[in-house]
Design brief:
The structure is a homodimer.
Chain A: E1 4-11, E2 15-17, H1 34-39, E3 41-47, H2 48-56, E4 66-70, E5 83-85, H3 91-96, E6 101-106, H4 108-116, E7 122-128, E8 130-131, E9 136-137, E10 144-156, E11 161-175
């Protein structure tokens, strides 16, 4: 079974983008080896909004061979550079295929679906030293409470970015009553 | 000038309590030296809700000599164990008094006020390895965006708790337009 990792940058108050979807607060630490990071993946999964935002910024160009977009509304014919998955549960099939790790790119809503479906195996956050005060959350509200296991942590001195690695422990997941 | 530090435990998705104000998800790591931590303070500042929640749990008993509650509604006569400050800005006067560090206990709303008034000097979070999915935020929504400087980080192996220390860099603080 392949591993799917939600790998994102977030502020200390757990936003992955500012209220307008902006990223100007993310400082790229020169010492983070992105090439090495990307090498561990051969597929990237993202939600429709993340896909469209990437396209707007001059085209989709993530250095990962195969891209998948989870969307009920996008048509395959309109997405020549990605495979459209019409149902989040179909990501389970991807995990059964042979290959390297799968990068869950985001956004938060897709992460929530993947967490509720118990499909995401690891959470890797680059904590940027900033309090944004508002924005798009790492994890939008959900009744699921997921315990994690800290598997790694590395500070980067130049920017004060912290790279944190967690495994999701579904055996200890619980769901709150009521909405 | 005394230093005020906002020191709290939070989930990875930046909640300091569950939706009902509960703390059952906070695992006390036996290796964290709370005595040593408390020694650096001689005053604690908290909001009304935090004060009342502490009282409900069998009385207020934090091992810090002097307690202050920021509240417009509480009466001093009803709070024999704390000094009532009727205005958040009065915390500035506390900082001018001689003494050790001031512990900003919380909650998030008071932290927001203190941040907007530029009165909190450091943010120290114990990141508990859990995604709560909802709850009381570390920092409720604000237009202020505060840059931080990572000054320390320490993992605790037994529980996977991470202790992170940041300084607030007000020189680089910005305020978004509109509400």
């Amino acid at each position: 079974m392949r591993i799917m990792r939600y790998s994102v940058a977030m502020s200390l108050d757990a936003y992955i983008a500012d209220p307008k979807g902006g990223y100007d607060w993310i400082v790229m630490d020169p010492e983070i080896d992105f090439k090495e990071m990307f090498k561990s993946y051969d597929a990237v999964v993202m939600g429709r909004k993340s896909y469209e935002a990437a396209k707007q910024k001059g085209g989709y160009g993530m250095p990962v061979p195969k891209a998948y977009v989870v969307s009920r509304t996008l048509k395959q014919a309109d997405c020549p550079d990605a495979v459209v998955l019409t149902d989040a549960a179909k990501v389970a099939d991807l995990k059964k295929m042979k290959g390297k790790d799968i990068w869950l790119f985001g956004g938060g809503e897709l992460f929530r679906s993947m967490l509720e479906l118990r499909l995401v195996d690891a959470v890797e956050v680059a904590v940027i030293p900033v309090l944004l005060g508002d924005g798009l959350p790492l994890l939008p509200k959900t009744l699921a409470r997921a315990k994690l296991k800290l598997t790694g942590q590395k500070p980067f001195k130049k920017t004060g970015t912290l790279l944190l690695n967690y495994e999701v422990r579904y055996g200890m997941m619980s769901v709150r009553a009521g909405r």
